[in-house]
Amino acid sequence: MAFTPTPCVRLLVEAGVAEVILSRPERKNAIDGPLGRDLTTALQAANADPDVRVILLRGEGGAFCSGLDLNAFNADPLPEWVPHFPTLWRGAHRALYECGKPIVCALERFAINGGAALALAADVLFVGETAWLQVGEARLGMAAPYNLAWATLRLPESVIARLVFMADRIPGPELYRLGIAHRVVADTEVVTVARTSCLELASWPAGGLTRIKSGMRARLDHGADAWFDRFTGQNPTPVRPPPPSR
13: which strand partners? Predict the structure, then answer.
């Protein structure tokens, strides 16, 4: 598949921290095919870089991600990437799943539907006081496959039910109470605090973080595609859910 290069995701590396930045601020970092492709590339590059010890995932322009860019999906003429989008988006989630380095997410303003799945994919989540996360696919008659996949890896069933059945906006303090977010900070400080935390993690002795991440993944007896297929309906083979990590 050939696509015109676009700066949909930026990668900045400094002091052992790779910032993977969703960079469509004019669309509130909404998801389209090029963003999915570029996110895969950035994550794989950060994971392969021996100087990177931790990854910070954030959005450009003061917001995290507004979900799928419906304008792009319904454009006329149809963008060339639309038929390939499931493969592109699977690639991004596969890169998140297979990343051997801790991923910290800075959630500013909102993370909606597909954007919520990216936030849930992070190992550590910082969220603003008035920021919110919404898994709203139930309102559309959809199954929220990647949200369910990540939530099932990380959360107890009671929290998953609250997250996906109500399909409402869950503000930062409640995300923290439910164990989804790890810390709530002032809205204007989300990226700063998350970056400071990443710099501290990156300053610790080499190898420890990757060994811990490897140990966390060792409890799983399946690969990325086998896991995600269970939620996208592509594979009927049973896969045993892991115990929640928190």
Answer: 18
Q: Report the chain's C-alpha Rg in angstroms.
A: 17
Euclidean distance between CA atoms 194 and 76, whole angstroms: 39
Whether 197 is covered by a domain: the verdict is: no
Domains held by the chain: number = 1
The one-letter code for the residue type at 199 is L
What are the tens digits of pLDDT across the range 138-190?
A: 998 988 999 999 999 999 999 999 999 999 999 999 999 999 999 999 999 99
0.90 surpassed by pTM = yes
The answer to whether residues 118 and 174 touch, using CB atoms and an 8 Å cutoff, is no
Angle between the N-to-C axes of helices 85-98 and 114-121, in degrees from 0 to 180, rounded to the nearest 10: 20
Cα separation, 21 vs 11, in Å, equals 6
The answer to whether residue 140 is domain-embedded is: yes
Q: Within 10 A of 218 (CB to CB), how many other CB atoms are there?
A: 8
The residue segments making up the domain with residue 144 are: 9-188+202-232
Q: Residue 238, preceding bond cis, omega within 30 degrees?
A: no
